[in-house]
């Protein structure tokens, strides 16, 4: 902007172009006239003094803007500044964070492009998922304030450590801590003692029953040897996937008869029996059919005093086991609510925040309960198309120790896995890394479009997000422990079962990711995603068929949703081919669909949800194809 234009602005209420003396003539208090030299804009005084003249006489006609036009112009300028600021922040973040895109190119090429909301959010998503394989960041000082606040409350209330309530940073813990420190300093200087808290404030709790311990006199447990058989079935078919319980501790407490004295542990034992009865060949379980286990489950009410007392380990185990049992029934919709309650009870005592790295049996059991609740929350939310109770950035906790149960209480080397011996818990840690990707998938692909508007994402978001999720999924697959890689001839039965479950979860998630692009079959991305989904479904169908033939009549229910999704994709592929190919042409996908149905049918007699899935297929277009194929031989 030139100096003439600057002084020609609307200063002192004058319109641009109004005649006014230059600065030199105004200081000398002389008349200011334009020079007679052609083409010169200087006055005679400035020419003689050889100074730059600010004389301005060219009139400028300008239409006065309305108030609405001014506001619209300012809003447009503000939006442009926000977009540019977001791009600048993303560029700065990308320059300081070395990452690799899904295509293998460096982010440097992206820095040179004009970044919008789509590009920026893709980069944030990529770096967030990359943190799955990096070491955990050290905790911030503010994140540990709740521990100091807990110590203060322990001194005041004289309660046990596990009875404290977790207080987050938004509750002003830092301010309370600073206030307490200053108050302590003041009282120390004056020599006075801090007044004891009033009992009607610190000791008040909602009124509950006088006897808050769950009644055990009316409970009916399985008698020996059935009880030992059910406990063995639970740890053989369920705990190898979701390691909620520590077998030596559990069996020792049962042998000591704790379930006859403690209501919390009694509920855990009853639910273990309820879950295990689905694999039992005891006549009572066989006769009950899909209702097996209800005689144990119905003895434990869902709601007692858990909401009014501090959550215990047995309370958290109760919600884990109750959800696992109900997920196999016709009342699976209750699981989503119950797992949310369990996670909030866990957060109430601060289980979602990292504690001391020094291991103990109790701490590890609490940690197991939290991780199992988190896993169930995402799986059930994905099944029901609902929002998870806890997101990836809501917790900060160490993964489970990859130490088998028998090595926890070693007399000289506790919590140390023998060198060269793979741990059975490694499966769950790998499964949880896959579960984290599932959580990202639910957020980035199956959340409402309000998230896109919030981050000003304009463009083909799903078409851009699916390759990113697929890339991190392939990275996860490359990091599968060696003893859990697919090997149909693997001799160790536990590792074989875990390997099948891990790969079924991988194929199920791959289908879930690419399923988001299957709405518009005319698009090229939809055809590519359908091919990927079909390949994943075929691999899953072959794998579970080999697993079924090897295990006989012992189903692995953890694979049920993956099997069902694979069958749906294979049926979709069959009907897609029916559009162009002849109906008489044999289709190998139909054989794989039958493999999936055989696995579902294997669970039908004991798991009600498997019966529902079988019924859905029985009275679907699948049945029509089967009849058609049988008719034409």
Briefly characterize the structure.
By secondary structure, the chain is an all-alpha fold. It has helices at residues 3-7, 23-28, 44-49, 67-96, 108-111, 117-130, 145-157, 173-190, 199-202, 226-237, 247-255, 263-276, 283-288, 294-297, 313-326, 333-348, 361-384, 426-446, 450-454, 461-478, 493-514, 524-551, 560-578, 588-603, 608-618, 621-631.
Structural commentary:
InterPro entries: AtrR-like (IPR050987), XnlR_reg_dom (IPR007219), Zn2-C6_fun-type_DNA-bd_sf (IPR036864), Zn2Cys6_DnaBD (IPR001138). It holds the Pfam family Fungal_trans. This is Fungal-specific transcription factor domain-containing protein. Keywords: Coiled coil, Metal-binding, Nucleus. It comes from Mycena albidolilacea. It is a single chain. This protein has about 625 residues and is an all-alpha fold. Among the domains are: about 5-50, no CATH class; about 140-195, no CATH class; about 205-410, no CATH class. About 55% of the residues lie in helices and about 0% in strands. The chain is built from 26 helices and no strands. It has helices at about 5, 25-30, 45-50, 65-95, 110, 115-130, 145-155, 175-190, 200, 225-235, 245-255, 265-275, 285-290, 295, 315-325, 335-350, 360-385, 425-445, 450-455, 460-480, 495-515, 525-550, 560-580, 590-605, 610-620, 620-630. The longest helix is centred in the N-terminal third of the chain and has 30 residues, at about 65-95. The protein is elongated and about 120 Å long. Mean pLDDT is about 75; it is low at about 1-20, about 100-115, about 165-175, about 195-215 and about 625-633.
